[in-house]
Amino acid sequence: MKDADSILIYDTTLRDGTQGEGISFSAEDKILVAEKLDSFGIDYIEGGWPGSNPRDMVFFDLAKKKTFKHAKITAFGSTRRANLKAEDDPQLATLLEAETPVVTIFGKTWLLHVTEVLRTTPEENLAMIEDSVRFLKEAGREVIYDAEHFFDGFKDNPEYALKTLKAAAKGGADWVVLCDTNGGSQVTWLQGVVKQAVEEVSPVPVGMHCHNDCGIGVALSLAGVEAGARMVQGTQNGYGERVGNANLTTVMPSLCFKLGYHFAAEQNLEKLSRLAHSIDKLANLVPDSKAPYIGRSAFAHKGGVHANAAQKVSRSYEHIEPELVGNRQRILLSDMAGGSSVAMKAGELGIEVDPKSSEMRSFIKRLKEREARGYEYENADASFQVLLSRHFHGTTDNFKLVSYRTISEVVRDNHENISEAVVKIRVEGEEDIKITVAESTGPVGALDHAMRLAFGAHFPELRNVQLIDYKVRILQTGLGTDSVVQVLMLSGDGEKTWWTCGANPNIIEASWQALRDSYRYKLLER
Amino acid sequence: MKDADSILIYDTTLRDGTQGEGISFSAEDKILVAEKLDSFGIDYIEGGWPGSNPRDMVFFDLAKKKTFKHAKITAFGSTRRANLKAEDDPQLATLLEAETPVVTIFGKTWLLHVTEVLRTTPEENLAMIEDSVRFLKEAGREVIYDAEHFFDGFKDNPEYALKTLKAAAKGGADWVVLCDTNGGSQVTWLQGVVKQAVEEVSPVPVGMHCHNDCGIGVALSLAGVEAGARMVQGTQNGYGERVGNANLTTVMPSLCFKLGYHFAAEQNLEKLSRLAHSIDKLANLVPDSKAPYIGRSAFAHKGGVHANAAQKVSRSYEHIEPELVGNRQRILLSDMAGGSSVAMKAGELGIEVDPKSSEMRSFIKRLKEREARGYEYENADASFQVLLSRHFHGTTDNFKLVSYRTISEVVRDNHENISEAVVKIRVEGEEDIKITVAESTGPVGALDHAMRLAFGAHFPELRNVQLIDYKVRILQTGLGTDSVVQVLMLSGDGEKTWWTCGANPNIIEASWQALRDSYRYKLLER
């Protein structure tokens, strides 16, 4: 076995994680996620339940052809059916067909489930556990036994719950994992139960599988480790059924920086934020800005006192150095912000301004007016930089809008829709107004294409600029279609990305503003 | 004092909560929040820091005129400045001017802050705490002393940290509150420290103020209560600086249902989801679907096995009854869904269908095709119901689009923008095509107005239908302005609300689809 303070990290993002609302990965995406987890140093990667759906079967077929440098891939399934030999159970057969070095099976701990869901006897359930584990061990697999509803079962009947673990141990399980399947357990009580389970099944090591239904999935996992568990199961970004599984992007840094345990991935923690965000991207989710350690807001400071102190002595208001998990300190603008926060923020963007100048006062006034109209500079650094630069450096536009018109239509007897934009702009140094027209699948795209035509050869650096993401929200809800629409737009040039904003009751105008700021920002490089 | 298992709930949504990124309340909104918290049975409501900004001063002026039926309003501030008499300190004076029954002041525990931030001596800091508390007590206030950075200070110098608490007790503090200001503490260690502090300051009762930086803000608060603390400070929905404060919408149900403590608001927990969502609405935030207990996903089940079992024996996969916190069970659609999930979902919407029929197979095929094109039925029940009704009941449209055209423009030398829509539709039972034109501030509004004109007297029930919320996201990022745009639209008729969806590379077309489904849904009532 390992050292007393060594922990194994077991990732079930690809199985339990996909039970979360709105989480869906293609088999190819699953392979990409597995490769990222492997590079990061995760010890076990649960790829799916081969018997449950065709997509997971495709994943295991693809995984067979890959070489993972550190992680062991595991296939998930259940114990054999009641009153059937393990060797005759089709579901156990599919687990072997997945050809993974490790197989994880779950079995029942809670008598409620044994009698009401499986509709079998307590004795047959113990036999199902022991037989299934032995069958998989004899086929040469490392076997992890997940004791489903372990804590609910223990509360109901501690003796029987421990018997199920011993049945798995007797069958030869390499690990028994205590699952708080419904997520209702509390820390102090759970810790006592884990201690007892660890003693009872020794020398078989114990793992934890917790959920976040009481908002304490991470605390339960860590409490289990402190009580002697040596494996933590969880998901990246806390994906998972209902409110999610124990969040490994929180568990890992706390194990390392707070409790001093060791695990293979600890050497890569400074890539943690990037890992978490890249998995969100594959899951098509916007990263949670309030995620501990890795969220955009995790080291963000608002209000003069804290922001000032945090810049001076960062540990005065930060529990770890943000860089240890690949994050960074941010100073926020807010309508509580005074000159010093704006000056700090400007400094962060490379613009030096005097926090006490009258120019600063007029800038803050302007900022607050614009914020009151719906512009959101807190999340649109590029628009903020454009505003700063225009105010303090007197930067003027390299182009000026004269007018635009967008038309979006579905024409009669032809169900296709098309958008067209006419743009009239003045480009600096040119006498005539440029008038251009372009089509696209939508009005914002049409405006964008027409703009590019108008810029022509004048601004070659804009050629590679592309819209990457686009978010729209209504600011005052309840006003019907006349509400103010706020647009946030992410653009990129292949090297870096930047956010701009727009706000107007008209979604086209708000989008146009964000688009214009994106070009203005890129042209600041001149 | 209270019974041994009685806890006081101290809400700082309006002060510490507003330090969160993107959280901002007007003084009037703050009053609305305070009224909601009071009705709910919250014991203390920290309204703001009167000395720090004019808005908070307005709040306290408004609060003076209100009668709160249960809650005590508290004003927040700091101890006196170094080397100044308490009675000469302008900041302490503003705290009294707020005229609240309770004043909460924070002081320094951690010598790093005493020397580096306050730049004073350890002895003067103790005097600042004792003097300030005594001054406020002599003015007739209930005084709560918040020991800022208590746990970091204790780690650094336990003896000095405890001395600061005793200074507050000596000054006459009614409560001392242990703050984990930077959010870096861990459960087991913190619990031991709280026990020690409770003994040292007895009989003065102790409170907890925790943050979520390690994802365990709730667990720390509960651990403190188990160690003898009798007050919990936190925020609704976990608003607050960085990743937020301890989330009271999680702490409260866990205290009640999991640990058996008592507090005034426990009798209102079945209104908890509504309270939390109404505060999000005032903060202009979309409720977190993954919030424990109260999130939309908290009792949502995906995948055949769990969904089936949860419907049969709900406690088999639910840690409490959702209704206890005003939530409900939901069955999710997903591409893992088979006939039985769709049938359950349909049943939930009042439509009975046979899960094994060939009609069901063709429906699931259609559903999956549409999901693959970007429609999202998981969050758009009304669109799903329209689809179901058309497929299983052969419902046809009461109106049919012939064509539409929207124009959005900024005309030359006039910086206002305007949108116009022309709609041509056939209304059932009418010979001629209706051709209508309307203007609005945006293209979706213009389409909506033109539609209503066309419907005219035919569908009077559509008159009260209004767009309430509107969300847009890009599905495949990285494709520039040609990406598929997904629109989710919330409509209401004054009595109920419903979500519909649309998906198309053209944002106007996607919006039109969501708008059309909203009308189709309302007309299903016929």
State the end-to-end distance of chain A. 61 Å
Biggest interface, chains and residues, is: A-B, 123 and 121 residues
The low-pLDDT segments of chain A are none
Strands of the widest sheet of chain A, in order across it, are 1-2-3-4-5-6-7-8
- Tell me the radius of gyration of chain A: 28 Å
The coarse silhouette of chain A is: elongated
How much helical structure, as a percent, in the residues of chain A?
25-40%
Enumerate how many helices of chain A there are, as a single number: 17
Strand content of chain A: 15-25%
Oligomeric state of the chains present here: homodimer
Q: What is the CATH homology-level superfamily of one domain in chain A?
A: Aldolase class I
Can you tell me the CATH class of one domain in chain A?
Answer: Alpha Beta
- Sheet with the most strands of chain A? 8 strands, parallel, barrel
CATH fold-level topology of one domain in chain A = TIM Barrel
Number-wise, the strands of chain A total 16
> What's the overall average pLDDT of chain A, rounded?
90
Structural class of chain A: alpha/beta
CATH architecture of one domain in chain A: Alpha-Beta Barrel
Organism (chains A, B): Oceanipulchritudo coccoides
EC number (chains A, B): 2.3.3.21
GO molecular function (chains A, B): (R)-citramalate synthase activity; 2-isopropylmalate synthase activity
Catalytic activity (chains A, B): pyruvate + acetyl-CoA + H2O = (3R)-citramalate + CoA + H(+)
